[in-house]
Amino acid sequence: MAQIAEAAVEIADAEGLATVTMQRVADRFGFTAMSLYRYVPGRAELIALMIDTALGVAPSIDTPQGWRPALRQWTRHLYDVFRRHPWVTQATTQARPIGPNELSWLERAVAPLAGTGLTGAERVDAVVLLTGHVRNQIQAEMGIAADGGVHLAVALTETLREHAADYPALTEAADSGAFGPGDNDGFEFGLECILNGIAATIAMRPR
Questions:
Q1: What confidence score (pLDDT) does residue 70 get?
Q2: Considering only CA atoms, which of 191, 12, 20 is closest in space to residue 86?
Q3: φ and ψ at 177, to 5 degrees?
Q4: CA angle 46, 40, 103 (to 5 degrees)
Q5: The pLDDT value given to residue 150
Q6: Distance CA 158, CA 62 (A)
Q7: Contacts of 161 (CB under 8 A, 6+ apart)
């Protein structure tokens, strides 16, 4: 079953999630699609296996300095994995069985929040929020890369300047570097905003 999942991950990495079918995976092994169902009940189960395979076991968090640096490190690790397997951003929005590797990622992130005063639900919600930030960032990066983002950004800036009276705030932002080639710190900025929000919430909770 591990070989089946690995083959499916290779297809998705190369051609996207939509190209992964039972037949495509079966062809890798010289099977018929029907014979593959003896190992994997269906495509939904195959995708769940693919997610767990792509994620792998969560790396340990190597920081003794509290929840904030731990979550920052965890989020950057997740970002690296999603960049290697961008189809995971789409696959993980679907209802599915959660495998042991994915649970290990959740465990690594929830654990540092113990003792902060956040409820169990809030600790999990904080991790979901960080995961969503990673997903949104990867989707934005992939979309810009696919659609010629540099040319689109130049055209947008030119449009704003032509209609500066209608969009003064956006024009000022563009003149200050927004939408330009140096405007690439969205991931770190968003991460810090989320961590600041979590910190502010924790500060209001009794210990």
A1: 96
A2: 12
A3: 115, -10
A4: 50
A5: 64
A6: 46
A7: 171, 174
Q: Which strand (E) or helix (H) includes residue 64? A: none
User: Which one is predicted more confidently, 63 or 205?
Assistant: 205
Q: What's the full length of the chain, in residues?
A: 207
Q: How many other C-beta atoms are found inside a 10 Å radius of the C-beta of residue 30?
A: 7
Q: pLDDT tens digit string along 130-155?
A: 999 999 999 888 766 555 556 777 77
Residue 97 has pLDDT above 80, yes or no: yes
Asked if 71 contacts 125 with a C-beta cutoff of 8 angstroms, the reply is no
Token duo for residue 151? 């040319």
Reported as type and span, the H/E element at residue 92 is none
Residue type, 179: F
Scanning the chain, the segments in alpha helix (DSSP H) are: 2-15, 22-29, 33-36, 43-55, 67-84, 88-91, 100-110, 120-146, 149-162, 168-175, 186-203
To which residue do tokens 């800036």 refer?
157
With 0-12 / 13-18 / 19 or more C-beta atoms within 10 angstroms meaning exposed / middle / buried, residue 138 is buried
Residue 83, CB-side half-sphere exposure with 13 Å CA sphere: 10
pTM of the model: 0.86
